[in-house]
Amino acid sequence: MEKRKKVLTGLQPTGVITLGNYIGAIKQMVQYQDEYESYIFVADMHAITVPQDNKALHENIKSLIALYLACGIKPEKNTIFIQSENEYHANLSWLLECNTYFGELSRMHQFKEKSKKSENFTAGLFTYPALMAADILLYDIDYVPVGIDQKQHVELTRDLAQRFNNKYGETFVVPEPLITVTGTKIMDLVNPDKKMSKSAENPKGVIKLLEDSESIRKKIMSATTDSETLVKYNPETKPGISNLINIYSALTDKKIPEIEEKFASSNYGTFKREVADVVIEEIEKIQEKYREYIESSKLDDILDEGREKTRKIAKAKWEEVRSKMGIGR
Ligand code: AMP
Ligand code: TRP
Questions:
Q1: What CATH number is associated with residue 11?
Q2: What is the pLDDT of residue 182?
Q3: pLDDT reading at 1 higher than 70
Q4: C-alpha 62 to ligand 2 mean position (Å)
Q5: What are the beta bridge partners of residue 178?
Q6: Which residues are catalytic?
Q7: Which residues pair with 145 in a beta bridge?
Q8: Is residue 192 part of a domain?
Q9: SS3 for 205?
Q10: Domain of residue 218, residue span
């Protein structure tokens, strides 16, 4: 049998997860787990490249994993771990930094953006892409699913892998970015011409996965629509209604024409109530599983197993790299 390709996903434990993330990204990951050998980890060392509240950060780490598991990521199909619990990520990162040019790191778009925001940005923010390269190169990863904003970092990872292989002999698999085909882009409920985003100014436009049902219902019922009364899909002229149709479609697997027909003689109030029912039903299921994970020792068992498995693999790769570079005994 042909060996399955490997994919690795890194998640920053900052901020909340929205219905947009769930429909646009997590549902896709749930599909990858059947196709690929899949690694998922919490990039907590990347999170600290910018200032964090230590308590909130700490709570977010396990909560994030519990939420992904609740959304259908299966522990038996994925290797799940926390970056900082595997010291070989930082170890390899240093060795890679010594093979990375200052100029290369200076050209990273994300660094240029984020370093503008504060005068006291850290050295870690600058070397961030070398750590990300280590995350990937430790495990002979074939594909890295990322949003377009992270593509340049995966390209740098490819350059570093090729450079190292040329200089020291075949060592790293050269990974490819798997640019997340925007499934359905979910829009803000208040400003449906903007993407639903955790950093939105008005919280009324954003549904969070750990939000209570009453609040979700209120937000959907007061979502911005238009002055017509027809449930019809047209993102240009009816962005609000089209967004609700997209949400309904993603969660029920019903096609758009089918939805238009089903609600042909309904007013917006009736349609919104049904959208709210569907969203609440899905989110309540997720929350119930989330609580199961967060309240049991299962989560720790999964993370212990992931740590042990990945440390073994990573140690071997790091030792190979160290020895090829000529350091140590
Ligand atoms: P972010 O929350 O921006 O870091 O994005 C994490 C992942 O969720 C990326 O793959 C995004 O493409 C996806 N995502 C974020 N917001 C949305 C949205 N409103 N609709 C669809 N996908 C989204
Ligand atoms: N930098 C990624 C982000 O901000 C997270 C990340 C860290 C990552 N290491 C990774 C993603 C390795 C993919 C592969 O979203």
A1: 3.40.50.620
A2: 59
A3: no
A4: 17
A5: 145
A6: 114, 195, 198
A7: 178
A8: no
A9: helix
A10: 203-290
The Cα–Cα gap between 46 and 2 comes to 34
Residue 232 lies in a domain: yes
pLDDT digits (tens, 9 = 90+) for 199-214: 888 999 999 999 999 9
Name residues contacting ligand 1 (CB within 6 A).
20-21, 23-25, 147, 180, 185-186, 195-198
67, 50: one domain: yes
Whether residue 68 is found in the same domain as residue 122: yes
Residue 194 placed within a domain:
no
Q: Where are the beta strands (DSSP E) in the chain?
A: 6-11, 37-42, 78-82, 143-146, 176-179
Supply the CATH number for residue 248's domain. Answer: 1.10.240.10
- Atom 10 in ligand 2: which residue has the minimum CA distance? 10
For the stretch 229-255, pLDDT in tens is: 999 999 999 999 999 999 999 999 999
What sign does the CA torsion over 215, 62, 82, 32 have?
Answer: negative
> How many structural domains does the chain have?
2
| 3-class DSSP state of 23 | helix
